[in-house]
Write a sequence for this structure.
């Protein structure tokens, strides 16, 4: 698990896996992989997340959540 970022996939929203390779390949820092035709998070890469949101756009709506495990500094979001 990442120290700063935790990424989760709701597999119930990924029933149609016809685009699974496109979903995982969109990430510029290789946070996702395909195992048995299902997307999985590569936990050791989670902290490489740049918060680009390309995965949010590529995966089915609501399938990916990116959780910041740190608090924002005052005056920053």
């Amino acid at each position: 698990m990442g120290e700063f970022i935790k990424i989760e996939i709701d597999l119930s929203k990924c029933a149609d896996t016809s685009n699974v390779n496109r979903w995982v390949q969109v990430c510029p820092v290789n946070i996702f992989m395909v195992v048995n035709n299902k997307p999985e998070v590569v936990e050791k890469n989670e902290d490489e997340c740049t918060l680009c949101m390309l995965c949010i756009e590529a995966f089915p709506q609501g399938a990916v959540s990116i959780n910041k495990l740190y608090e924002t500094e005052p005056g920053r979001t």
Observations:
- The mean pLDDT is 91.
- DSSP finds two helices and four strands in the chain.
- The beta strands are 5-9, 32-35, 38-41, 64-68.
- The longest strand covers residues 5-9.
